[in-house]
């Protein structure tokens, strides 16, 4: 019966030992400043500084490029399952694969021709 639970026990040991080792190492090897710095005493939560807000404007091309990256990144992720079973799908899978790639290339050429990838 113990042999059935041995892999879980090993996994549990490593699941507890690795984070504990990391926390211990961070305290053991951390370099701490000798004096307090004003920047360290200012509260900082969720990436938003409580100090004076500075207006930083981003151009639309920044957001457009970010959205296009996410769009194409997600579409490329769909190629992995198809590539894994492409041999089993034979010619049907290959034609579907080519159709998907052609659609991606047409979309890429379209946004390239529209100038969405150029920084102005």
Short description:
With 120 residues, the chain is mainly alpha-helical.
Search tags:
120 residues, two-stranded antiparallel sheet, mainly alpha
Q: How big a fraction of the residues is strand? A: under 5%
The number of domains is: 1
Radius of gyration: 26 Å
Which sheet architecture does the biggest sheet show?
2 strands, antiparallel
What is the CATH third-level topology name? Methane Monooxygenase Hydroxylase, Chain G, domain 1
Order of H and E elements = HHEEHHH
User: Kindly, what is the distance between the CA atoms of the first and last residues, rounded to a whole number of angstroms?
Assistant: 67 Å
Describe this structure in words.
With 120 residues, this protein is mainly alpha-helical. It has one domain: Methane Monooxygenase Hydroxylase, Chain G, domain 1. It is 70% helix and 3% strand. Strands 1-2 form a two-stranded antiparallel sheet. The longest helix has 28 residues, at 2-29. The protein starts with a helix and ends in a 7-residue tail after the last helix.
């Amino acid at each position: 019966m113990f042999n059935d639970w041995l892999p879980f026990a090993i996994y549990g040991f490593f699941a507890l030992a690795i984070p504990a080792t990391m926390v211990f190492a961070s305290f053991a090897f951390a370099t701490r400043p000798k004096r307090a710095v004003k920047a360290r005493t200012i509260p900082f939560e969720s990436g938003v500084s409580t100090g004076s807000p500075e207006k930083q404007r981003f151009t639309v091309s920044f957001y457009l490029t970010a959205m296009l990256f996410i769009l194409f990144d997600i579409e490329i992720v769909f190629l992995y399952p198809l590539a894994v079973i492409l041999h089993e799908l034979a010619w049907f899978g290959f034609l579907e694969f080519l159709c998907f790639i052609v659609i991606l290339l047409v979309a890429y050429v379209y946004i390239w021709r529209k100038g969405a990838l150029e920084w102005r």
